[in-house]
Structure formats: C-alpha cells, structure tokens
Amino acid sequence: MHFLVYFIFSVLLISIQTTFLPAFPRFFAQYDLLIPFVAYLTLFRSSIGMLPVILISGCMMDLLSGGPFGIYTSTYILILICFRNATIYFHFKKTILFQIVIIFSVLMENLISGIVISLHDFSLEFSLYAAGILVTQFIWVFISSPLIYFMFDLIFNGIDKLITGGLREKT
Questions:
Q1: Which of 9, 52, 143, 166 has its CA 20 to 30 A from that of 126?
Q2: Residues 10 and 56 sit within 8 Å (Cβ to Cβ)
Q3: Cβ atoms of 55 and 74 closer than 8 Å
C-alpha cells in the first residue's frame, strides 16, 4: 500500500515539475522537486516500496526531461545509496539533516549533469549561467526544505494512520 501512495505522490510531483515550473524558468531555475521527495523517503521511511518508486520516478523524469537518459535515475539512486544510513551516523535535528541532504543532493545532480554534458561535448567550460542556476537552486533549498519536510511529515504520517491504524511505518 505504501508503494501506491509513494507512486501517486511522485507522479503528482513530476506533473507539477514538468507542467507548472517550466512556465517560470528564471524564478525556479530547474529546481528538481523529486530531490526532497527522494531524500525524505531515503532518510525517514522504510525501504518497503521505496526502491521501485525511485526507479520509476527517475525513469519518468528522464523520459519527460528531454535530456540525456539516466541523469535523474542515477541521481536518485546515488541519493539512496549515499544517505540511506545518515540518520544512524548523524544526530542532527530532522529538519537540519533533511536540508543538508537536499543541499548535497542538488550539488550531486548538478555535478552529474555537468559531467554528462562535458562528456557529450568533449569540453569542460565554466558557465556563469550555470553558476547562477546553482545559486538559485540553493536559495530554493534553503527556503523550501523546512516547509517541504513538515508537509511530507504531515502527509505521510496521516497516511500511515489511515493505512495501518496508527502504527507508524518507520521514524
């Protein structure tokens, strides 16, 4: 049942990202809404139904983005691999840990994109436009990550109460 909830939520986020956010390219600067979702699933939810949703979401984003295939899927899998046990090793407040993971995840996604683009063009060039996009994405991370964490926590804990009758999946 959790798989279905995660999948519906990821399709909703993909729909928002591919229809609404491109209408304001300078304001949102290609901020990937699935990074906070994948980070939340990785950090605070159990692995039941999580890996298939991350793989399907990554493939859907790769297909809908029009970019080189595999960037989003590899980014989401790398987030899962790198931060799966972060709550065991780092004892920060949950919102702070969530924000730190999103910052590193946005940086990883931009590095993977830069590597793929530079391998495609056989050149490595620094772009002020790309740096501006990265700065805008970091601003969005600092502004939105606490709000997104509380929204995800409220939604998924409410769904857990509906599904399991009050038993939480994992914290």
A1: 143
A2: yes
A3: no
